[in-house]
Amino acid sequence: MKFVTAKDLIAQLKNDLIGKDSYRGVTLTYSWLANQFGHFSLGFIPTILIYTLLKAKTSVSSPELWAAFGVWGGWILFELFNFLWPLLFKSESKRKALGSGKYTFQPAWLNVTFDTITDLLYFGIGALSASLICEFHQGILITLIVLVILISYPFYYWYSTKMFIQNAGYPFQLRLSQWNQQIKEENKALILNFLQHNEPGKHMLLFGSRGSGKTMLSVGIATESSIKNNSCSYVTAVKLLCLFFENEDNPPITKPGAWSWRNSSLLVIDDINPGGNVQDDILSAAQFYTILDNLSCGEINKKAIKEKSIIWVMGNEDPDRHAEERWETLLEKIGVEKSNITTVNLDAI
C-alpha cells in the first residue's frame, strides 16, 4: 500500500526547505537533500578552482572541459573504488560479500549500486554547472540537461523512500545487513521468506532474551520493507494498547504522507514482554486480547490485526505454556491462519 503522493512529496519539500532546523529538528528527507547538495558542491567547487588554475598557469585549450570532466572522472574513480574495494580486494570483506563472512544478511547490492549512480549524477551536475559558468559550451549545456532529466527519477525515488522510512517512526536507523548477531540458518530462512512475500496477513513472533538483538532485527526487517516503498509502522505494545481505543473517524494530525497503524502494510509491535530474567509475561495474550476487543473499536482492531503483516517482538518463549496462554492461540482467535504465523526464537542458537 503506497501512501506518499506527489502532493505529499511537495509538502515535505516545503517543510524541509522553509524554516530553520535549529528549532524544527532534522528529518531524513532534509538530510538526504543536504547530502546531495554536498555531492553537487564537490563537483562544482573543484571545477571552478581547477579551471582558474588552468586558465592562469597553462595554455591548455578548453580548460572548462578539462576541469569539469577531470573532476567528474576523479569522483567516478573514487566511487568505483569505494564500491568495489569491499567486493574484490579486501579479503575479509570479500568473504562477507560471498556470504561466508560476518554478514548475517547480505546487503541489497542493487540498491547500493543505484545509490552510487545517483551520487555520481549529482557530482556530474555540479561539475558541468561550474563549467558553464566559467565558459559557455553548447555540448556541456546539452549534457547537463540530459543529466538533470536522468536525475529526476532517482530524486523522486530516494526522497519519497526517505519519507517512507521517517514516517514509520523507527527508534533508530538500521539496514538488515547491519544486523550481525548469530542466528540459526532455518530462522534466517524464515525471516527472508517473511520479507520476500508481500501478501498481507503474515505474522512473525520474534522471541529473544535481553541482548539477543530482537528489536534491532525487527527494525532492520521493516526498514527493508520501507525501502520497497511499503507503509510500515513501529509502535511499542504499551502505546498500541492506547491506540486500540482510537476511532478512525477522528485520526490524529499527521505529517505529509503519514499513515496510522491500522492502514500500514507492516507493523512492528515492540517490547511486548521484556524476556531475560523476567520469565513471566507482564502483558499476557489474554490481557492483550481483552484491550484489543474493546466495545468502541474492537471489530476494526481485530480486522486490522488479521489483515496486515506484523512482527511481534516478544520476550522468552515458553514451550510449556498452556495453549490458551500462547500468542499463537491469540492470533488464531482473531482469525489469522496458522500457516501465516512464523515463530523465530533468537535464543535458539
UniProtKB/TrEMBL annotation:
Its recorded name reads ATP-binding protein
What sections of the protein cross the membrane?
A: 37-54, 66-88, 108-128, 140-159
Q: Which UniProt keywords apply?
A: ATP-binding, Membrane, Nucleotide-binding, Transmembrane, Transmembrane helix
GO MF assignments: ATP binding
Domain of life of the source: Bacteria
Q: Cross-referenced InterPro entries, in alphabetical order? A: P-loop_NTPase, YjdF-like
